[in-house]
Fold this sequence. Notes:
mainly beta, five-stranded antiparallel beta sheet, 45% strand, single chain
Amino acid sequence: xxxxxxxxxxxxxxxxxxxxxxxxxxxxxxxxxxxxxxxxxxxxxxxxxxxxxxxxxxxxxxxxxxxxxxxxxxxxxxxxxxxxxxxxx
Length: 89
């Protein structure tokens, strides 16, 4: 199978997660909000199905390629930089 044969279900991206003080969480997977019923010990990690009888834990911002069984970061080998405005400008 070539990369152009991938379907939306073959790539799983964890876009974000919000944990409320009530204990409920919302996780965005492939841009769609999912209401969770429990809070994980580590709110930055989400367990998703990899295939039949297999699961993988992803960090927020990571994408799972279910065909290759590989995960990749949104940053990859790059870096995130923040430029702060100087006061008074």
